[in-house]
């Protein structure tokens, strides 16, 4: 029986979740550093990390996430 291989979007989201866990910041802190308002920062990052999200993240969002964590984008992709 073959194992299901993760799609590229699923792999990127897994990388995002791993980077978020390793950085030691809360989702709200990451969101604020990405430029979201205090009221929507945590929710925006939660949607970004959620594998159930129906949309793929934009490159600009991935760049902002990497910058917020102080990591090169290639570590997330």
Structure explained in plain terms:
The model has no long low-confidence stretch (mean pLDDT 90). The longest helix has 16 residues, at 8-23. The relative contact order is 0.20. The protein contains five helices and no strands. The radius of gyration is 13 Å and the shape is globular. The protein has 77 residues and is mostly helical. It has a single domain (11-76), classed as 434 Repressor (Amino-terminal Domain) (Orthogonal Bundle). Helix 2 (27-34) packs across helix 4. It has helices at 8-23, 27-34, 41-49, 59-69, 73-76.
Please state the overall shape, judged from the principal axes of the Cα atoms: globular
CATH-wise, what's the superfamily? Answer: lambda repressor-like DNA-binding domains
- Mean pLDDT across every amino acid position: 90
Structural class: mainly alpha
Q: How does CATH name the architecture?
A: Orthogonal Bundle
User: What is the number of beta strands?
Assistant: 0
User: Terminal Cα separation, in Å?
Assistant: 28 Å
């Amino acid at each position: 029986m073959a194992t299901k291989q993760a799609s590229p979007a699923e792999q990127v989201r897994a990388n995002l979740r791993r980077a978020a866990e390793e950085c030691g910041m809360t989702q709200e802190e990451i969101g604020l550093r990405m430029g979201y308002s205090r009221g929507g920062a945590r929710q925006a990052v939660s949607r970004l990390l959620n594998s159930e999200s129906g949309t793929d993240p934009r490159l600009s969002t991935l760049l902002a996430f990497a910058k917020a964590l102080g990591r090169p984008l290639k570590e997330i992709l």
